[in-house]
């Protein structure tokens, strides 16, 4: 007796309202950015953190191979789920360079960003953390010990088992899958400095 195929209803989409106080607060049209969900805290409701991206990404030609980016940025915007309001935030610390096609993942009240491609068309292997704890926004550049995933763009990254940051695939890569260990199981994603292979660089 043959098995029946699994049938899933098609997802439905609808636009949601959004507001902002100034033109700077609105993220504007862009592509190849990240939009990462951060859970509610005691001082703030759930939100979406938008970082980077470009207004256009075009492939190169035979005379000028590679990728060309227009309007690439490193701006950060926060969307409050409850109030439906966009806000441009300017964290303390040294920010990542403008980039697109990077990867991002949430670790507790922090968002981790890896890789991406810059205005000159070169991919990067750096790792940054945007710390949102207590609404005191701050960038940290992370020094990775051991074999990292290497320069790449167009990849994905996620937190697995509340312990490992796993990157998969992407362009300009040698190995398809790499793993960071940014947290211990006991810390539950609260302290990135707890792991021996990741430490914050002093600024």
Automatic annotation (TrEMBL):
InterPro entries: Kelch-typ_b-propeller. This is Serine/threonine protein phosphatase BSL1-like protein.
């Amino acid at each position: 007796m043959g098995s029946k195929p699994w049938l899933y209803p098609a997802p439905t989409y609808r636009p949601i309202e959004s507001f902002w106080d100034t033109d700077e607060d609105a993220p504007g049209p862009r592509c190849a950015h990240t939009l990462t969900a951060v859970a509610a805290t005691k001082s703030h409701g759930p939100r979406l953190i938008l970082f980077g991206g470009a207004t256009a990404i075009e492939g190169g030609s035979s005379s000028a191979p590679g990728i060309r980016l227009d309007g690439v940025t490193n701006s950060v915007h926060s969307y409050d789920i409850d109030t439906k309001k966009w806000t441009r935030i300017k964290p303390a610390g040294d920010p990542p360079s403008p980039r697109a096609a990077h990867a991002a993942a949430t670790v507790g009240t922090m968002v981790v960003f890896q890789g991406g491609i810059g205005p000159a068309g070169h991919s990067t292997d750096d790792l940054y953390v945007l710390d949102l704890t207590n609404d005191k926004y701050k960038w940290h550049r992370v020094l990775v010990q051991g074999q990292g995933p290497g320069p790449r763009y167009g990849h994905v990254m996620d937190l697995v088992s509340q312990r490992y940051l796993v990157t998969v695939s992407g362009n300009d890569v040698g190995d398809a899958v790499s793993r960071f260990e940014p947290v211990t199981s006991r810390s539950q994603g609260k302290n990135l400095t707890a792991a021996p292979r990741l430490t914050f660089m002093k600024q």
